[in-house]
Structures are given as C-alpha cells and as structure tokens.
## 1
Amino acid sequence: MDPGSSLPDEDRVTKSRVDVLSSFARKMRGRRMVPHPGPTDDEPHSEHRTGGKSGALRAAIFGVNDGLVSNLSLIFGVAGAGVDNEVVILAGVAGLLAGAFSMAAGEYISVRVQREVFERLIHLEAHEIGTEPEEERAELAELYVRKGLSRELADRLSEEIMKDPALALDTHAREELGLDPDEGLGSPEAAAGASFVTFSIGAFVPLVPFLFGSGSGAVAVSAGLSGAALFGVGAAMTYLTGRSPLLSGTRMLLIGAGAATITYLVGTLLDASVGI
C-alpha cells in the first residue's frame, strides 16, 4: 500500500505540504535552536533558560515597547511641526487607538494561525499512526538513523515507541515536525487583549505631559518619561534574554530616542517649509 493512500483527500493535501507547514509553525513559534558556545568571561556562573518563560510576559514587554516607540515618534513628529497642543493630543490618541487595535488584530491572527497549523499537523500524524503504523515506525527509525543511531538500535527504539500511541504521537511531533505537543499555544482572544492593553499603556506614556501642558516644556517632560520607560522596558527584556540589564536598557533607550529625534526633526522641517 502506498503511504498516504488511506488518507482522505484533504489530509493528503496536508501531507504533501508537511515540510512547509512544520517549518512555518516552528518559525512562528520562534523555535530555531542554536547551541550556546558555553560560559563566557563576563558570565562565568550564568545559566539562561528562557524556554519556560511566560509567553504572556514576552507579549507584555514587546507590546509596551511598541506602544512607546511608535506613539513617541508620532507625537514628537507632530509636536515638531509647531501645531496647537490640541492637535498633538488628537494625534497621540489616534496613534494609541490605531496601534492598539492593529496590534490586537495582528496578535489574534498570528496565534489563531499557529493553532490551526499546529492542530492540523498533529491531526495528520495521529491519523497516520492509527492507519499506517508500519510506515510510521519505519519513518521514525529512519529519523533516528539520520541522528546517528545504528540501524538495529533505531529499529528497536521505534518499535518500542510505536507500542504506545500517545508516546508515538508525541515523538513523531517532536522528531518529524519539530513541534512540542506539551507547549500550550495560548488563546487568540487573550493574546489580542494583552497586546491591546500593553500597547495602550506604552503609547499613553509620551502623551501624558501634553494633557497637562504644552510647548517645549511638555516635549521635555514627555522625552524624560518616555526615556525612563524605554530604559525600564529594555532592562525588563533581560528576563527573557539573559543579557545585561544596563546594556539592554541603554540600547532600547537609544533606539527610541533616535526614532523620536528623527520624527521631531522631520516635523520641524515640515513646519519650516509650510511657513515659507
């Protein structure tokens, strides 16, 4: 019997795209693993294990960062054009809402697609294990041979694994597809909500001074608040990356400051050109 001949038409189509779909799922999950070179002089006792870190924390940190940088740049660009304070506030609120809804929609679609691809691939593997156990056993043995095991050991190991359908599915998902069935994908709705809230918080920071003041004073206070927030967000990222908080915070501060400075200068030039 040809492999896949007992599959429904829809599953046969999925089977023909397994390599592309599994690669897509791994990239969406950020599962590309690179061996660490080992301890370095500046990190003699450090062990950075980010695999178990909260996905919610990652989304929160990057959501706040995106809100800060994008709305800070927008507000400074408008403020640099010398418009009335009411226009700056309007632009800041519009940027906050537009960015928050955009982030929420993007996060919802991203997580939803991840779940659908993941579930589809797992469904296909479960079907094949149930209907074509010998072909799947041979496929698993071949994977182990490619990893360096002897043919005899690979055959014995694959036979033992295939005796337990749950273990067989888990192993095929990990070894063949590069996916982890135990790793929760989360809720699209929760991801969208978290992105909306965190982006809004970040985008609100540079807007606050303009709600109570105007002109160069509000610009200076906004720059100070946003700079402190950017440094804090960058430092917080080290919980995920294991890098130096000072280095990460300074890098994030410089990136945000650079973006805000450029847009402020562009706004100033536009104001000058309009006034000519």
## 2
Amino acid sequence: MRTFESLTEQEILALAITQEEEDARVYADFADGLETNYPEQAAKFSIMRREEDGHRHRLLELYKTRFGDHVPLIRRQDVRGFVSRRPVWLTRPLGLKTVQKTAESMEVETRRFYEVAARRATDTGIRQLLGDLAEEERRHAHTAEQISLTQLNESEASQQKRLFLLQVIQPGLAGLMDGSVSTLAPLFCAAFATHNSWATFLVGLAASVGAGISMGFAEALSDDGSLTGRGHPWVRGFVCGLMTTLGGIGHTLPYLIPNVHTATAIAVCVVLVELGVISWVRHRFMDSPLVSAILQVALGGALVFAAGILIGIS
C-alpha cells in the first residue's frame, strides 16, 4: 500500500480517474436501486452520475495531454489514508437514508482528496483542474446533503411506509405476538404447579429467551428479501427475535415479587396491556378493524392462558 505523499502527479491523476469512474458506477447503482421506490431521488443520483462521468472525461483528457494513453490502475484501496466504504449498494432494497449518508461521505472524501492533491501539484494545468474539481465536489456534497432533506412525494412516502411495514412492523408484530402469547402457557403452568415465584420467573425467562432465539432464526431464514423486498434477513430476524423476547419478558418480570399470588395478579394485568398493544398495532399499521383485532388476539391469548392453568393444576 502506497502513501499519498509518495504518489507522482501522473499517479495522482490516474487515482482520480479511477475514483471518478468508481463513484459514477456507485451512483448508477444508487439510481437503479432507488428507481422503484424513490424515483425522484433516483433521478438526482442519475444526474450526479453524469457529472462524475464528466469529471472523469476531463481528467482523461488532461492525462493524455501530459502523460499519454496508458493509465495505470491505481485504486483508492491501494493508497493509505482513504476511508473504507461499505458496499451498501449491493444490498437490495436500498435504504434511502443509508444511501444519502453514503453519498454525502463519498463527496466529502473526494473533495478533500482534490484539495490536498491540488496543493501538491506543481503543473499549473493539473493544479487548476484539481482545484476546479474540488469545488465541484463541494457542490456535490451539498447536493447529497439536500437530497437527505428532500421531502418525499406522496408516492414515495407511501412506498416508504410499505417498506417500513415489511421490514420492521411485520417481523416485530409477529415476534411480539409470539412472545406474548406462546410464553403464557409455560409461565402460568409453572406458577400454578410450583406456587414459587422464583421458579416461575426462571421458566418464563427461559421460555422468552428461547422463543426469541427461535423466532429470530426462523424469520432470518424465511427469505433473503431479494424478491419480497422485506429487507436484510438478519435485520428482520433481530427485530423479530428482540420483540419476541420482550413480549415474554413483560409478564415474566412480575415474578421477581416473592408473593406468587401478587405476582400472578400483576402478570395478568401486564398480559392484558400487551394484548391491547398488539391489537392497536394491528389496527394502526395492518388496517385490521380494532374490534376484530381485539377479539382475535384476546381469543388466542385466552386459549393459551387457559391451557397453561389447566396443565399447571392437573
């Protein structure tokens, strides 16, 4: 790996050409990845791609004038001092905020590169071009910042809501329902069988954590999101697993109270609150009628609750 100070003017120009080509291709991937869900933002990245192509052509013309036709392949990763970029453009569907922040950091880094390179250049033509490109990259950084502040149109806002539902609400709701309902049976079975708060707490904790791990892996392995647009599988799995664990932990914590009867009464109240929250989320985000959502969730919870008690007292 070379240091930036060791590069000649020829190598600096070659590095700039490679970097502009790479940035143009990244912006093309951004535009392609955002086209379906965020067409207006995609159009802005297409414009930035064309401008980066223009920078590359200007650099190539100057390079050929000074050094001939052969351009050595010098990449940013070959030179010490550049920040490593995560390949966010390979993940589909693309997250708008992630893309915007990535573009902004790319432009800031490229501007700094041109500013430092211009100060080192001794050739007047090279120094002028690098200085001009530094100023244009400054405007690009401002453009990238403005993209992050742009209000989404009605279609894009609707699509963003849909993605939020697919990637966060659905796996989170599935986990919360499973954690809140599936742990009722072992928890209250232990309470009525042992009449011991600490033993019941351990059973509830084990059931909650175990269900969280199981649901997390099940969600992550269900699909990779490439066709369904449901986002990164391990993110969905983490959301689902975390909400599953929280759903079970909520009515497990009361059993830290030594009196098992008091703990059970509080746990029942917590369960009612959890089922109410689940019903509201289904109504708010899944367009389920509120009464229907309450009845469905309450019926499922009541059946599991009754099964736990019957098994515990048998």
